[in-house]
Amino acid sequence: MRVFKRAADQSAAAVGEKLRRGRTDIKSAAEAIEGFKVWTANAPAVRADPELSFALCVVLPESNDSTLHVKQIDPPASGQDDEPFTIDIEEAFNANAGLEVSKFPDLGMLPHKNCAAVLAFLKDRYMHDYIYTTADPLLVAINPFKDLKNTTKEWLDQYHTAADVEKLAPHVFQVARRALERLSQFRESQTIIVSGESGAGKTEATKQIMSFFAAGSIGSDDRIQNAVMAANPVLEAFGNAKTVRNNNSSRFGRFMQFQLGEYGGIQFGSIRNFLLEKVRVTSQEQDERSYHIFYQLIKGATPAQRSNLGLLKLEDYAYLTKSGGCWDCPGVDDVASFKEVNRSFHAMGLTVEEIESIWSALSGVLLLGNVNLEARESAGEAEAAAFSAGAEATLERCCKLLCVDSRALQKELRFRVKLIGDQEIESPNRLTDALIIRDSLAKAVYEKLFDWLVCRLNSTIEPPQGFTIFMGMLDIFGFEMFEHNSLEQLLINITNEQLQRNFIKIVFARETKLYRDEGIGNVKITWTDNEGVINVLCGKTNSVLSILEDKSLAPGGTDEAIVTSMNKAMGSLDEWKPGRKNIRMCFIVCHTVADIQYNATGFIQKNKDLLKPELCALLQASPNSVMSALFAGVVVEKGKIAKGQLLASQFMRSLNSLMEIISSTGSHFIRCLKPNETKKPHDWLNGKVLAQLFSLSILEALQLRNLAYSYRRPFAEFVAQFEQLDITITKKPGDAREKSKMILARARLSQDRWTLGKTMVFLKADAVRELTQRMRAMVAAWEPLVRIVEACQRRILHYQGIHRNMKLLVRIQAQVRKAHTIMEGA
What we know:
Layout: H1 17-20, E1 37-40, H2 44-48, E2 55-59, E3 67-74, E4 85-88, E5 92-94, H3 115-127, E6 132-135, E7 138-142, H4 153-161, H5 172-186, E8 190-196, H6 202-214, H7 223-239, E9 240-241, E10 249-250, E11 253-260, E12 266-274, H8 292-300, H9 303-309, H10 334-347, H11 352-368, E13 373-378, E14 381-387, H12 391-402, H13 406-414, E15 415-420, E16 423-428, H14 431-461, E17 471-476, H15 487-517, H16 531-538, H17 544-553, H18 559-570, E18 576-578, E19 586-590, E20 595-599, H19 603-607, H20 613-620, H21 625-630, H22 647-663, E21 666-673, H23 686-695, H24 698-705, E22 711-714, H25 715-721, H26 727-730, H27 736-747, E23 754-756, E24 760-763, H28 765-825
Parallel strand pairs: 7-21, 8-17, 8-21
Antiparallel strand pairs: 1-2, 1-5, 2-3, 3-4, 6-7, 9-10, 11-12, 11-17, 13-14, 15-16, 18-19, 19-20, 22-24, 23-24
Domain Myosin motor: 102-776
Family: Belongs to the TRAFAC class myosin-kinesin ATPase superfamily. Myosin family.
GO cellular component, one term: membrane
């Protein structure tokens, strides 16, 4: 289960330390002029509430090159905390002051892009319901936890028909349109990669993009498109569950391919699923549910179905009671969802017999948990597995639902067979082994049923001749950094490191293209890639996965032996550290985003979580066509496990195949953020969001984007930003490019720190800091004069007001005298 205290719950200082310092941080006190604002984590408010991460402070006099004298202003301080204090210069981050959030949809356009400034800016946009922000090549999407009415047909049509979609506000529809244009113009396959933690909105973003591609279908056969769209409720029912963080948490990854029509619509499709969290079938954490489909079936089944399947009450299934009786999900109508799944089955082209077999298999999986076993002495085994009272009758009903031989399954649960020479020796299973076999069967049947549903859908929607040019979509977890990380997190993070390698290559390519298009040559871009950590994780030899496989296959291999071998093989590498706690069982991998500690307890058991060959053969022999098809492709080999059969080996084959496909396409990235744990709108947790900015490589994207020239602006924008440096240049008429060149020449910056392209000014980070510092110094120097001018202006306006009032007073006096004379005459 992945329900642990997250890295997001830790203080900001503990998260992603190696990436924390941005490229626009303060280097000296001269860059933090008196009266300007900075962010710091070393403030009274943050010490009182570490979740704040940073507090905004104003710089006071008496600052120097090593320390700043500051006062906290946001959140407002009171009492003793309202007193000024001193911080080290390294603890300060420049703040973006006075920005109008609606006019800065791109994080790359911010004057300061350090982690504190980015965090504050995203929060400000979120509070104003701007949930989409660009961090090229990423789109940052923050879950609003409410309907903003921004995915309606009107919105969809707007992004479909816009002459230039880049002029519209950031949106998932904009990413979809951009990918669609590249697919059409360059005849090159595209992939949209949607990632984020559970509850961040990945599922919704994926569905919105699919609706964008499905829109505009004209005069074509909608059968395939309907089947593709109908698959969403089915995949959610079988692959999603309620967790403490998300009522509709996707517990699997998926890669989808679509062939789109010339005039819109989905002509063909294909879905590949991976990393299903099958342990959820047999156990759940407190206040969580198993997969939605179980609750939908039990609550929504008709009386006839209940009778035929022998359905019990929710609380009567042992597999569903592990969570403390969590039967319902807020905002979810299980009965209505059951009806929708049935409709979707028909839209997918499933037959009545296939649908009935699905319900029967699910009922059998649930009932397996009620086959109670106990320990008895037998044949010299003190803890031999035996059926409890009534368990054999339960197993009989279970086998009927699963359409397998009950006597054969009884034997597999109670006995094991060893081959000694040519002779088979039968001996009792220990109780613990029998329970593992029972639960492994339940998990395997469910996992294979999920796989079968996907394959069955693919048989209906895949193109007969295969894909040539396609639109791909990857829905995947981001990096996972929990308090306790196991094999599941390791495999997820290996996936993300592979995607990160692809991401870095794409950013390099885009930067190189920008310089080429702007006519800038001889630009050297340097950046450290993540090849080292990938080799540590999944290299062919002396890596985490290679050692895991060796120990899993070795007789008597243990989890502790895995860690010992890893420390010996990789202890001297920069990407490796021994565990902080429980050093015998833990190890640390220095990932791209942070150092993550893994606990190897249970690694071998999870890696060898394979169904006994005898059980595979039993299911393959089922007279039910669906049940026998579940394990049709499984090779049954008795004896030792062969290389390639282990979980990690199968995962890497699937991942390598997936990455080969993605690497051959143009990639687009959507990073989904979860702003809080309450699932309420406008609730924001700084520490939680900050952790995601690192784990989803959003801050790294900003750093990668600024590898050589961090500042790139059109000439007119540059002139407007730095006009106060020399108003004799900026205020006179003329070409913006020439003005830009004159400003830079007048500033006497060395030529290696700036250059002019065809449409933009390019500056290195230190040049931007120097120009900004000069601007601030000029503003500070002008401030006394400005105050005098303002005072004079106020005095002039005051005298002008008096003069106007004197004229009015004379007129009023004349009118009063006139009225008085008239009254006396009367």
